[in-house]
Amino acid sequence: MAFMIAQRAFIKVYLITKVEQHKGYGYQMLEDLRRDFKAYGYSPPQSEVYRALHELVQQGILYRTKQLKGNDPKVDFQEIVLYHFTADGEEKARLYKKQVKTDLDRCLGILNKAVTDNY
User: Fold this and answer.
1) What distances in angstroms separate CA 12 from CA 15, 33, 69, 74, 111, one per listed residue?
2) pLDDT at 23
3) CA atoms of 47 and 11, how far apart (whole Å)
4) Which DSSP symbol is given to 25?
5) Which of 29, 44, 61, 84 is the most exposed place for a label (fewest CB within 10 A)?
């Protein structure tokens, strides 16, 4: 068993939650995570966020659709990729999050013990 939870597993949980909340597209999710964790000195690498999204698609949890970013197709040419749950993706996501929660609880135990024992 790993010492602490893998960064990609950590990121995947947040990405699943963003999709559950219908919170945007890849870059928007990246920016939200960076904003949310800035106070903790953590900035998720763009490459890891996109690898995590790709893995969630490969695992059959998410699928992608494309659309223009703006509302005027005559002016807005930037295409964005939106992520959605597959037919059984919500159930797969729930199980994945449950598994990661077990890992997070174990990590919290290790960290709390380290603080108690050393500080």
Assistant:
1) 5, 11, 24, 35, 21
2) 84
3) 11
4) B
5) 84
Tokens of 108: 């919290």
Please provide residue 53's backbone torsions phi and psi, each rounded to the nearest 5 degrees. -60, -45
Percentage of the chain beyond pLDDT 90 is 78
- Which of 63-67, 69-73, 92-96 has the least mean pLDDT? 69-73
Q: Which residues contact 93 (CB under 8 A, 6 or more apart)?
A: 16, 19, 20, 61, 85
Q: Collapse the DSSP code of 13 into the 3-class scheme (helix H, G, I; strand E, B; otherwise coil) and give the result.
A: helix
Per-residue pLDDT, 2: 76
Q: Report DSSP state, residue 40.
A: G
- 94 pLDDT above the threshold of 80: yes
Across-strand partners of 62?
Answer: 85
37 CB neighbour count, 10 Å cutoff: 13
Residue 1, amino acid: M
Sign of CA dihedral 82, 88, 91, 92: negative
